[in-house]
Design brief:
By secondary structure, the chain is of the alpha/beta class. The chain is built from eleven helices and 15 strands. The strands form three sheets. Strands 3, 4, 5, 6, 7, 14 and 15 form a seven-stranded mixed β-sheet that branches. The chain has a six-stranded parallel β-sheet with strand order 10-9-8-11-12-13, with helices on both faces.
Length: about 325
Amino acid sequence: MTSIPATLPEMMTAIAITAPGGPHVLAPEQRRLPVAQAGEILIKVAAAGVNRPDVLQRMGLYPAPKGASDLPGLEVSGWIADIGPGVTGHSIGDAVTALVAGGGYAQYVTVDARHALPIPAGLGMVEAAALPETFFTVWSNVFDRVGLKAGERFLVHGGTSGIGTTAIQLAKAFGAEVFTTVGNDAKAEACRALGADHAINYNTHDFVAEIARITGGEGVHVILDMVGGDYVERNWQAAAVEGRICQIANLNGPAEQINFNRLMIKRLVHTGSTLRPRDGAFKAAIAEALKANVWPLLESGAIRPVMDSTFPFEKASEAHQRMEDSGHIGKIVLTVS
């Protein structure tokens, strides 16, 4: 347990976006300490996860939702420093990990108390900071939204991303046959080590053709995609009859041409969602599902967050550059002093 000061400071250091642009626009600045409102807790931040939406926000392409902090940072770990009115089940000094709507790149952040979870036994603060964004996203989309079941074939693109490493482990733990796409053979091997049954290097193989070969032309039942662009049509080709595709990002932009006949003939469901703007009750329900279904797997060591690298808080720009270089395998985390 860390020492929570008896009197909280008035000011804190935060990493702000000084203007839309490259990693260099991230800079430390002094901010007033946020105050826990009704239903909220104040967390003294130990570590903060770095995610693709942080990069998009920094570039001016993903504004914070109304009412959220303008600071980047969607997940943190740390200790409860203060508790707002009406909060139960938490105590000052408790170690927690939490999903936040923004503001994670700071020494203190307020969060809806329902979105904070105890740190799983056996995990440190850095690993705990790597949990919320990807685990909330994967659980709500893969298991709740498109209903992946044991025995089904599951494809996630970008297998060595934070989302990818999480999805591979969870899908495998719940009995799916797991396919993924990656950019090189080293990443393919890393995905197989996490439990992927088939890791396809998209620079040397057409994933649609490979999936057809492996499945005898049947395809995969569930696809989680954050690529978009021409992958929309290719996902429909790779999907099984009555397959389900969930879109959570469009890193390659919108699909310019798609053949809806394929969607209709295969009776596919193509859905999508974004987590950040959803209401507090929705995220609270995900937190409860994770605590019941996934936290025991983390505590037993059956699954773990995959860690790529850590950077001191003040070097957030270097962490963003690491993410944009796309060489990372797993999560990038900032350590906060």
